[in-house]
Amino acid sequence: MSFKEEDHHWRPGTRFAVEDVQGGVLLKPLSNFPATSLQSGLGCVGYKGVAKSLNGMQAAINDEMARSWRK
After folding, report:
1. Would you state the pLDDT for residue 2?
2. What is the pTM of this model?
């Protein structure tokens, strides 16, 4: 069985992790996205309010989960 790069949407330059598995090797394409930090990712959301505490965030998540289960 043979595959073409179009079968998996691989493009020239795709990098792979190679794993030794029973009966052959497993190729896993590596992410094309550069490594980033949480701070740089959150910078794009534009939130300008007061920072939320972890407890405040958990309470909001719990409230939303409870609300969605009541639907």
Report:
1. 67
2. 0.37
Q: Residue holding tokens 């794009």?
A: 44
How far apart are alpha carbons 54 and 9 in whole angstroms?
A: 39
Residue found by looking up tokens 């939320």 in the block = 52
* pLDDT in the model for residue 44: 67
As a whole number of angstroms, the distance between CA 6 and CA 29 comes to 14
Judge contact between 27 and 13, C-beta under 8 A.
Answer: no
Domain boundaries, the chain: 1-31
CA distance 70 to 48: 31
- Contact residues for 14 (Cβ-Cβ < 8 A; gap 6+): 5, 29, 30, 32
Are the beta carbons of 15 and 31 closer than 8 angstroms?
no
